[in-house]
Design brief:
Layout: E1 4-8, E2 11-15, E3 27-33, H1 38-48, E4 54-61, H2 67-75, E5 79-81, H3 90-103, E6 108-111, H4 120-123, E7 130-134, H5 146-153, E8 157-164, E9 174-181, H6 188-211
Parallel strand pairs: 3-4, 3-6, 4-5, 6-7
Antiparallel strand pairs: 1-2, 7-8, 8-9
The structure holds glycinamide ribonucleotide.
Length: 219
């Protein structure tokens, strides 16, 4: 990508690039994670098994000591900590994240359990090149505690969604979804565990299809 960082006094200001759709490009992935990183692992395994033609360039994480970081080390992927607690403004954190993604020559960003709101600084640096995995059938149950929200609403079908990231939380074009039944004795933990099995299937699938141009009509 050819984005430029322009330095204006003390703040880094991103000059938005004009970026062509991802279609046909070899995916150079930057993963953003806040927790366990099981979705990071699913993407790494899909690459290792040649299901997904891509390379993991970098893991960005915001919580020191999380399991995602150990997983990155296991797969030989550089892991960079950007602790949100060190930043007063979301935009400043996002500018650092963009800088790291660009330094690692990322052309597609995957928010895999990234539990922070993002700003135009990140979104505009990677237009139509940021995907998110969310543990609900969007547009239902956006935001935090999605699995709990679904149980509280008494739905009989739950699931997960891979979508492109837009400024409004969990609102971008839907790429792939998977649905599963809610069982009568489900707790948030048991339901989330079954949803995650589907997440690990549809996240690599969505990336394969994104690179193949299957979502052309959504961009
Ligand atoms: C996943 O279930 C993902 O859907 C959810 O966080 C979990 C991360 O798991 N994301 C969100 O709730 C975003 N709103 P992981 O760290 O094991 O991949």
């Amino acid at each position: 990508m050819n984005s430029n960082f322009a330095q204006t006094d003390s703040t880094a200001c991103l000059v938005s690039p004009t970026v062509a759709p991802l279609e046909g490009e070899f995916l150079k992935l930057g993963i953003m994670a806040s927790g366990s990183g099981s979705n990071f692992e699913a993407v790494a395994e899909a690459i290792a098994s040649l299901q997904l033609k891509a390379q993991l360039q970098v893991l960005i994480y915001n919580n020191p000591g999380i399991k995602a970081c150990a997983r990155a080390e296991k797969w030989g992927v550089p892991a960079v900590l950007h602790n949100h607690r060190d930043y007063k403004k979301r935009e400043t954190l996002d500018a650092k994240i963009v800088q790291t993604l660009q330094q690692h020559e990322v052309n597609c960003v995957v928010m895999a359990g990234w539990m922070r709101l993002v700003t135009p600084v990140l979104i505009e640096a990677f237009p139509d090149r940021i995907v998110n995995i969310h543990p609900s059938l969007l547009p239902s149950f956006k935001g935090v505690r999605a699995v709990e929200q679904a149980l509280e609403a008494g739905v009989k079908i739950a699931g997960c969604t891979v979508h492109l990231v837009r400024l409004e939380v969990d609102s971008g074009p839907i790429l792939v979804q998977a649905a599963i039944p809610v069982l009568p004795d489900d707790t948030p933990e048991t339901l989330h565990a079954r949803i995650q099995i589907q997440e690990h299937r549809i996240l690599p699938q969505a990336l394969v299809q994104l690179a193949a141009g299957c979502f052309r009509n959504k961009l």
